[in-house]
Amino acid sequence: MLSSRASTKLCVPKQLSRAVVPLLHQSTLGSPGFRVAALVSVHQHGTTRYFSTTPVTHLRDFFPAKETENIRQTLPAWPHHGYTEQEMLDVVPAHREPRTLGDWAAWKFMRFCRWGMDLFTGMEKEQSVDKKNPTTAVNSIKPLTESQWMIRFIFLESIAGVPGMVAGMLRHLHSLRRLKRDNGWIETLLEESYNERMHLLTFMKMCLFMKLMLIGAQGVYFNALFLSYLISPKITHRFVGYLEEEAVHTYTMCIKQIEEGHLPKWSDPNFTVPDLAVKYWQMPEGKRSMKDLILYIRADEACHRGVNHTLSNLDQREDPNPFVSEYKGGRSPPRPASKPEGYERAEVI
Asked: In this predicted model, what pLDDT tens digit does every residue of 248-264 receive, in sequence order?
């Protein structure tokens, strides 16, 4: 789904536009039969950016039904644990100030990545927030459109699922080499990656697929994270913590703009989220609007924010994962969403 503004227009052949464009605003976007043209280009400020190279004549269903003789459906490996409505509403943008040189490097690199995302997704100067508080301020002169939000969501979630997989894979191999247990880190990291992938699959049900852009981002990002985690897991977790701060900030801005009426297509009572999302988050009847979906996803990002900042504070080789550990004296495990800056080692170990 791309913006229809004059400076950013969707290039779809006339013979397809009547069939494709109306679908972008229907409540049937989540249906399994939704098909879109795969070739999309964005014309912006006199330049052309191609998000896919697949011929336009090749229409594709991203999630075709896979029926077999005996299997009804494949259940998620990590069912979502769910949130109360109050837990989701309590999530706010927050920022952990860098305290070490490694923290500073991770933060600056995160800001560089954010600048790149703003540039390549067509964000205008008037749509940005206060540069002095880029991770907490949510007011902008001009709101984004539904199309712009969707581009940003897909780009963000396409790379957000990489760090957990890289870290989980490397810690798995490290555990095998050392012939020692990993103390619960692997499971949490892989579950985080799975959760981010569910975010992406949900948004892909509602949008055109920016294939080339995503492949390029993942190709560079995966290898960069792979090398980074080999060199310093602590700095890498801090970087991911800052990445999740940006995610919480992004979704909070979107919720605010929905509440202020700037995104009418998503405020339409007839708009429904994909069945994929309803099943994964177990969204109750009457709580299946776009705002409800973003609240669930923002809460997930808040958890990832707290988890990664906390993991960065721990001894990477010896400390157990506090979020899946059983504590003495009946104490409950820490709740990462309630601690935006992460728990210090002394608080959980």
From this structure: 999 999 999 999 999 99
- Is residue 63 very low, low, confident or very high in pLDDT (cuts 50, 70, 90)? low
The number of beta carbons lying within 10 Å of the beta carbon of residue 50 is 14
**Token duo for residue 201:** 């699959």
Q: Where are the alpha helices (DSSP H) in the chain?
A: 14-20, 85-89, 101-120, 146-160, 162-178, 185-204, 211-231, 233-259, 264-267, 275-281, 290-312, 345-348
Cα(54)–Cα(215) distance, rounded to whole angstroms?
13
Across 63-77, 213-227, 237-251, least confident range:
63-77
Instruction: Pick the closest to residue 277 from 189, 196, 203 (CA basis).
Output: 203
Contacts of 322 (CB under 8 A, 6+ apart): 310, 314, 333, 334, 343, 348, 349
CATH of region 81-348, choose from 3.20.20.370, 3.40.50.2300, 1.10.10.10, 1.20.1260.140:
1.20.1260.140
Torsion sign, CA atoms 269, 270, 274, 275:
positive
Residue 144 φ then ψ, to 5°: -80, 160
Does 16 score more than 50 pLDDT? no
Task: Check if the beta carbon of residue 159 is closer than 8 Å to that of residue 216.
Answer: no
Percent of the chain with pLDDT strictly greater than 90: 38
pLDDT at 21 > cutoff 50: no
In 3D, which of 126, 154, 156 has the Cα closest to residue 141? 126
CB 206 within 8 A of CB 147: no
Task: Determine if residue 199 is labeled as part of a ligand binding site.
Answer: yes
Please check if 196 is assigned to a binding site.
Answer: yes
User: What is the per-residue DSSP string for 104-123?
Assistant: HHHHHHHHHHHHHHHHHTT-
Is 301 one of the annotated binding-site residues?
Answer: yes
Q: Which residues pair with 50 in a beta bridge?
A: 41
Q: What is the pLDDT of residues 113-146, one digit of tens each?
A: 888 888 877 788 888 887 888 888 888 878 888 8
Q: What residues does each domain of the chain span?
A: 81-348
Is 157 marked as a binding-site residue? Answer: yes
- Given a contact cutoff of 8 angstroms between Cβ atoms, the answer to whether 165 and 195 are in contact is no
